[in-house]
Design a protein that fits this description.
Blueprint lengths: L5 E2 L2 E9 L3 E8 L4 E8 L7 H16 L8 E6 L5 E6 L6 H7 L3 H20 L2 E2 L8 E5 L5 E5 L6 E2 L30 H16 L9 H6 L10 H4 L4 H9 L11 H18 L23 H5 L76 H26 L1
Antiparallel strand pairs: 1-2, 2-3, 3-4, 4-6, 5-6, 7-10, 8-9
């Protein structure tokens, strides 16, 4: 591929990152004298009409939704070799993943995650689910007055909840992926994003995701009855924090907060309580451990949605103190067992990528609508039906052989 130093009127400065499907460049618009980010489809996918259309669909979604909480697209075009590109605002404040690696005090982490919840609600209000919310996809924008807010980037796997299509692949990052995503439960809805953002919040508070999963197989093998390791006491936070984490990370999506705004309000309330108590410092190193996921039989899709579970009322059984304020929209999941000694978290096998590039295979579209969740039967592999056909043929051959012998 021939090196290029400009795309359209945009002068390229350096490459920000590259993935399997696209490369993002830091550029400069000399006419407007502003930095920009230019995303270009990889040349090996340029001839794939499906990938190409989904690449352009990402740009159209980001352009259609005018909100300061989303990275804005303001130009689109095609290179001489036929590859499409689109031009976005350049956000130079880094990502939540940068802060996660550095360590951040709990109050600031909760405030940023609450802001991310409100950004996510913008997508949901436009009937879009993201399906790959990770710390790297949440960018920090710093205004000239010093204020910061969180922007959502990388909508490569986002999908309309109204205009749904069938799925052929699972989209998402395993460490932050809701259990129903790799299990083929349809239809998906906004609660997959709420799970992911709760997992992001847990990671921002502890430095690691809530569960030690590195692959789809790890998600399917994880014991979904085990809640995340409690962290409130070691952070000097109210017990409400553990209740919110358990609710948002519940395998049964009916027990999660129904909207991102409810999660935002809960996180803001907890941040205010910690700040008022003045009991926080940097994240304690003793928290930097994670519970390993035991290998068990893969649960069925019906075990994830569990729509027939009775509603949970009253205070959460494992928490003696009641919440300091009403927590509408949250339901308890399973109580915490006694926490065993935990091994040090080693991190995912693949490095987290952030900024404008998705860390999961993009453009793999799962069916998504806003209707009520339903459990579905697991899909049998093709080999199962081939085996049945061969067995039927063998049975027929044996019966014919026996018939011929009898007639003789």
């Amino acid at each position: 591929m021939v090196a290029i130093d400009s795309i359209g009127r945009y002068r390229l400065i350096r490459r920000l990152g590259a993935g399997s499907f696209a490369t993002v460049w830091l550029g400069h618009d000399d006419d407007l004298d502003v930095p920009v980010a230019v995303k270009v489809l990889a040349d090996n996918w340029a001839s794939n009409s499906d990938v190409r259309s989904r690449f352009l669909a990402e740009a159209r979604i980001m352009r259609r939704i005018h909100d300061r909480r989303l990275v804005q697209v303001y130009d689109i075009g095609t290179l001489d070799d036929g590859r499409p590109y689109f031009v976005m605002d350049y956000v130079d404040g880094g990502s939540l993943n940068d802060l996660r690696r550095q360590g951040i005090n709990p109050v600031r982490a909760l405030q940023l995650c609450a802001d991310a919840c409100r950004a996510l609600d913008v997508l949901h209000s436009n009937d879009i689910i993201h399906r790959d919310v990770t710390p790297g996809n949440l960018l920090i924008s710093r205004a000239s007055n010093g204020n910061t807010h969180v922007l959502i980037a990388d909508l490569g796997v986002a999908k309309s909840m109204v205009d749904a299509v069938g799925a052929t692949m699972t989209a998402g990052t395993p460490s932050y992926m809701a259990p129903e995503q790799p299990m083929g439960v349809t239809p998906l809805d906004r609660r997959v994003d709420i799970y992911s953002l709760t997992a992001v919040t847990y990671a921002m508070l502890t430095g690691h995701p809530p569960f030690l999963v590195r692959s789809i197989a790890d998600i399917l093998a994880r014991d979904t009855s085990q809640p995340p390791q409690p962290i409130a006491e070691r952070l000097g936070a109210p017990d409400t924090l553990d209740a919110v984490m358990v609710s948002g990370l519940a395998a049964d999506r009916n027990r999660r907060p129904p909207t991102a705004l409810l999660l935002a309000e809960a996180l803001e309330m907890i941040a205010g309580q910690i700040e008022a108590a003045g009991a926080f410092e940097q994240v304690p190193k003793t928290i930097m451990t994670a519970r390993p996921s035991p290998r068990i039989e893969s649960p069925l899709a019906a075990e994830v949605t569990a729509p027939d579970l009775p509603p949970v009322t009253g205070p959460y059984p494992s928490f003696a103190p009641p919440p300091l304020a009403p927590m509408s929209g949250f339901k308890s999941a399973s109580p915490y067992p006694a926490a065993p000694a935990q091994p040090a978290f080693q991190g995912p096998s693949q490095p987290l990528t952030g900024g404008y590039l998705n860390s999961a295979p993009p453009y793999a579209m799962s069916q998504a609508t806003a209707s009520a969740p339903e459990a579905v039967e697991p899909v049998r592999p093709v080999s199962y039906y081939i085996f049945l056909a061969l067995a039927a043929v063998a049975l027929f051959a044996v019966s014919m052989f026996v018939t011929i012998l009898v007639l003789r």
